[in-house]
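thought: fold this chain, then report.
action: predict
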Amino acid sequence: MSRHASNADILDGLRRQSIEIPSWGFGTSGTRFATHVVPGQATTLDEKIEDAALVARYTGARLRLSLHMPWDVPESWSELGERLRAAGIEPGTVNPNLFGESEYRLGSIANHDPAIRRRAIEHLRESVAASQELGTPDMWVWVPDGSNYPGQASFRQRRRWPPCPRRQHRTDRRNTA
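observation:
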């Protein structure tokens, strides 16, 4: 038995491997603080899909396109899944965004404002529903709910906040009894 794989074996292994690429890799670049538009970059979800399909075609790789909410929200998630598959790409991970809105600057699900916590939880629920409709079992949740400076947030107070609406209901019932 040879200790080295043939080029054909290597290429076959690469074709079977699924590689996930982020949709934002095909769009305007930048950071969460600013975007930097470059002529020719994809500006719509359809353009990102076209670019990803081109990468798949040129490389022969099996690609999965990860989607980021709220930037990659289609009219219909199930139709988006069909469009991706028709382009030779599998739907990838759904990524909710709990940092891009200015109201999340002091946290999302751990924000001191109950209305902001509810909005963040609703966004997570929408992301779960999108993932199910899209037909992908994967969702990545990054919760950037730290604080930037000492004394900016009370960890003792955050521990007392109900983390979900169901628990909020139980807490409200106890407080009114």
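thought: worth noting. The longest helix spans residues 114-134.
final: tokens above.
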